[in-house]
Predict the 3D structure of the following.
Amino acid sequence: MAAEFVKYRSKVGIGLLLFVLVSFGIGGYYLILDWKWVVGLIHFGALALILYLFFSISYVITGKELLINYGAFYQKKIIVGSITRIKETRNPLSSPAASLDRLEISYDSGFILVSPKNKKGFIDHIKSLVPEVSIEMRN
């Protein structure tokens, strides 16, 4: 049987997105008052990079591995069989998650925070591959 390859996009939280846009908007306003080309390119280039990262996060389940993709810069591989717990959280730690509506995935060598848009489908998929995984959802 071929490995099942399913891609889950990250949920983009409106709160985090607004925070980034407002922060860069305020900076952009003051930048326009005293325009300098180099500073403007850096400012708006950084905004474009952050928005690219927000919308490029994905989680791919290949059957044996969970691949966490964060733009062209980062890919983490977790053996699906090593996942021991999935816990719903709002932990704000830096992670490949564009929303605070997150899942903490604990595995043999640590944990990582993710925010799949289709949270139920993602959890059900992991559970189908690792039936003994512990699931902790908030009420």
